[in-house]
Write a structure and sequence with these properties.
mainly alpha; 4 helices
Length: about 120
């Protein structure tokens, strides 16, 4: 089976690399939500602001992901270049959140894994 287009949607030819990357991608998506939640609860100056950021930032990321980037088929399909750029941008906000929270090493690891995962996702057959 060949895919209709690169990325998570279509008739993917599953190989050990693509299967491993799918697991990594899912883990990164969950880690992104956790990182944004962590950042939000540590950033706010008052408990109300912390609560809003801690819930709102991951909710916003999940909404964007669901509408434009979901692996099962997004609601609003974007041109391939826009899809790739948006995926990297959303994932890298988690790396920035980790860095802003004082977790710089973890931020670098996350950023590198995110770029590698997206690159494999859109280039591996």
């Amino acid at each position: 089976m060949k895919m209709a287009r690169p990325g998570p949607v279509g008739q993917r030819q599953w190989t050990p690399l693509t299967a491993t990357n799918a697991g990594l991608a899912f883990g990164l998506e969950l880690a992104m939500l956790a990182a944004l939640c962590y950042w939000g609860f540590r950033t706010g100056s008052t408990p109300v602001i912390r609560l809003l950021l801690g819930i709102g930032a991951p909710a916003l990321a999940a909404t964007v992901w669901g509408l434009f980037l979901a692996a099962g088929g997004p609601k609003f399909r974007q041109p391939l270049g826009v899809e790739i750029a948006l995926k990297v941008l959303v994932l890298e906000t988690a790396a920035l959140a980790l860095h802003a929270s004082g977790r710089s090493t973890l931020a670098v690891v996350f950023a590198v894994l995110a770029v590698v995962s997206v690159a494999v996702e859109y280039t591996a057959n």
